[in-house]
Amino acid sequence: MGLQVITMKVYRIHEKITKYRFGNPFPTDGVLVKGDPWEKEGMDYFQVEQGTEIRLTYKMDSKDMVWGLGENQRGMNKRGGIYVSYCSDDPRHTPDKKSLYGAHNFMIVDGRERFGLFIDYPGQVAFDVGFSHTDVIEIIIDGTDADIYIIDGEGLREIVRKFFHIIGEGYAPPKWAFGYQQSRWSYPDAKTIEGVAEAFIDHDIPCDAIYLDIDYMEGFKDFTVSEDRFPDFPRFVEKMREKGFRLVPIIDAGVKIEKGYGVYEEGIQGGYFCTDGEGKPFVAAVWPGKVHFPDFLNPEARRWFGLKYKGLIDWGIEGFWNDMNEPAIFYTERGLKKGIELAKQSENENLDMDSFFALKDAFIHMSNHREDYQSMYHHVDGKQVNHHEVHNLYGYYMTRAAAEGFEEIAPNKRFLLFSRASYIGMHRFGGIWTGDNHSWWEHILLNLKMMPSLNMCGFLYAGADTGGFGGDANAQLLIRWTQFSLFTPLFRNHSAIGGRRQEPFSFDQETTEMIRKAIQFRYALIPYIYSEYMKALLHRDMYMLPLAFAYEDEISRRVENQLLVGDGLMIAPIYEENALGRYVWLPEDMLLWKVDDYRERSYEIKRKGHLYLEVGLHEIPVFIRKNKMLIFGNHGRNTEVLDHRELYVVAFIEDRAQYVYYDDDGLTKDYKKEKYTEIRISIERREEDFEIKIENRENRQVKRIHFEMVDIHGNIAKKTVVLAAQ
Ligand code: GLC
Predict the structure, then answer these.
(1) Residue 346 has pLDDT above 90, yes or no
(2) 567 Cβ inside 6 Å of ligand 1
(3) What pTM does this model have?
(4) 435 Cα–ligand 1 center, Å
(5) Which intervals hold domain Glycoside hydrolase family 31 N-terminal (predicted)?
């Protein structure tokens, strides 16, 4: 490829944000702010070249680190790897994989220079972050039309906040979506689901939702419910609600081709499906066999599909997960034909290395094939757009279809919604789960590393399949994973068909007991988790952060196995089999609470430095940062019955700490009209005592707060404050 320096248009988006526009990019709606044209020569930081693609290069310093890139393999520091943004349905997340389900082209270079970069391009983008050349970042955009944003700022968090400012406010799930959720592919019928619900009740394990995977449908057809397996579905939904559980059905991207099936017929009549090169609806096969894919990029098709959710909503459903929306393709006629022809030719042949592997590859690589994506088309504003060039928008726009539908169906209601495929900007419409991981210890650590990277890309409502989707979990893995996941906003246990059962009560009694305590702790923490989540959303901030985002020392900057959760906590989970402890780095003195039963509390001060921490299988180490506090309540069998009249605060105070407790109705969007509770707590260490001040706004629930305050020398004081009636 002959590369040449090219011209671009420059826009000033904000004092510290510059947009460089190449060609005529497809509007992704990733960024909401347009900016003004700006006379400026050249691009900051990067050398840019263009031929049939755009290539950016940046020379790194030996100590530079690179953050971000959302859903990807490897470390929080992305240096050393190649990452390819091309939403991929690949269920084996081995360390060599370059593409997972999301395409999150935001990163921060942090070292000699510090700046953020967002490549707004909906086709393939490859990031070589010091892999081919240890000190070079090379980014290859697979086309010539793209917007590139550079964000300057002093601090890492400041850069992220600026980025959040231009991509817009994130999605607020209902409060019940912060409860524990149980899933499995599949609980096939109403009876099985009732059994699962009863088991949660019998074992006294809190739970808010049970999932309906593909088998709830009739023949895997979207927006249908099998009458055989779910007779009187609306009544069943209601009955489950009475027991305290919400049901969350899956919706897949592909619509089954079947005469007489309403969704298919309407899609054909309305011209709502993606087409092939000849203008006929594009055909691919997924769960139900042959399907068409709705053209979510076309606003009319989007609205049509979004309003289809109404049927299930009218039956009492309040949450959905959108799946297979990369979109996943098992096969197309093209791929199948190629494979079969090759197989026929090979019959009775003496296959040598080349011909045998060609035959094998024809089947192995039949799914999710580039050639298929390249022969599918969208229709936007009267123009035909090749799918491959906008591939990364598909899951985002499917989720947008749903969210826009909900907005029309029930404008002020909050729905649970998350997706498998995603692109930056989708966080305004829903969350994500990280797809088909495995019951591997390595995937607990991957989950931990991914969370802050996803947060940086706007996705605060995120989580992984706790216990692992593929493979077989053992008791210990499920315990340790649950002890980590209880801090993630989406807290769902999900597993694949054929694998070992992994509900919290699927193992021995002792395991059930430990998982019960962990889940109860999650429910006790909801005042903190919800408060921190919503504040992050409203203040354009992160909820889970690498230590480097708060501590600048050289060790903290490179810690890859601990996280900050919200304003006050640091966690150091166990992610190794049979480990009964681990090394922890303390960037400052902290207060350690090893949680077993959260109602029994004891604390230890741990001094700044390296620490080997013993952690029994039943223990969850929680560190309260210096001059910070942790607020929590009591658990309940689900989020709806949580009683927050009494709250507890554990504070670790050197001189003073401040905390803002946030709460709202958890069901409506009234928080946008400033209808929320805010309790501002400040604690000051006085000579003999601690002074507590509380400012109370719109609080009708919390009556008393019980304080346990520990000073830097380990002196503990307890006080209860009765809140003024509002
Ligand atoms: C996909 C999803 C998984 C789901 C399965 C069946 O693999 O990622 O979560 O259980 O499909 O619907």
Answers:
(1) yes
(2) no
(3) 0.97
(4) 8
(5) 47-128
